[in-house]
């Protein structure tokens, strides 16, 4: 009997529900277009409740997050950012929170890196 041992990665990035895409491959480019079209601030911390709701509705459609109710997050972007990852994930369904948090984290990093570039 011969057993083959495969070199598999220890941790696999989460898969976007409804697709076979790994999160690292998922494109968030359509959010930039949406954000520009609806004049939503680039910095998530400056988003109003309406902006946050728009982002959540976009994410539900973009990532097939059926079953997640955007109305459960009636708060500003600053309030969501101040929650921190653990509290945010505790208030969202499994995997859905991971996807949303990864996008939020990416938006925060992009916002802070663009604001630190001198004019």
Automatic annotation (TrEMBL):
* The keyword DNA-binding is assigned to this record: yes
Domain PNT intervals: 26-111
Q: Which InterPro entries match?
A: Pointed_dom, SAM/pointed_sf
User: Which UniProt keywords are given for this protein, alphabetically ordered?
Assistant: DNA-binding
Give the highest taxon in the source lineage: Eukaryota
Return the PROSITE patterns for the record: PNT
Q: Which GO terms describe its molecular function?
A: sequence-specific DNA binding
Entry-linked Pfam families: SAM_PNT
**Record's SMART domains?**
SAM_PNT
Keyword Glycosyltransferase appears in the UniProt entry = no
| Family, per entry | Belongs to the ETS family.
Identify this protein by name.
Protein C-ets-1, variant 3
State the organism's lineage.
Answer: Eukaryota, Metazoa, Ecdysozoa, Arthropoda, Chelicerata
